[in-house]
Amino acid sequence: MRRAMARTLCRLAQTSEGLAAQAARPAAIGLLGAVETATKAAAAVPVRTVSTSAPSFAAETEYSNAVFYPEPEVEVGEAAPAFSLPAIVNGEVKQVSLDDYKGKYVILFFYPKDFTFVCPTEIIAFSDRAKEFEALNCQLLAASTDTPEVHLAWIKTARKRGGLGFMQIPILADVTKAVSARYGVLKRDAGIALRGLYIINPEGVLEHITVNNFPIGRNVDEALRMLQAIQYVAEHGEVCPAGWKPGEKTMVADPEKSLDYFSTVGGDEEEEKESGKLLKIRTKKDLDALVQSGKKAVIKFWAPWCNKCRMIAPHVEELADKHKGVTVASFDTTADELETLTAELGVKGLPQFRFYKDGKETMDKIMGYKLAPLSEAFAKLDKL
Question: Signal peptide position in this chain (predicted)?
Answer without folding.
Answer: none
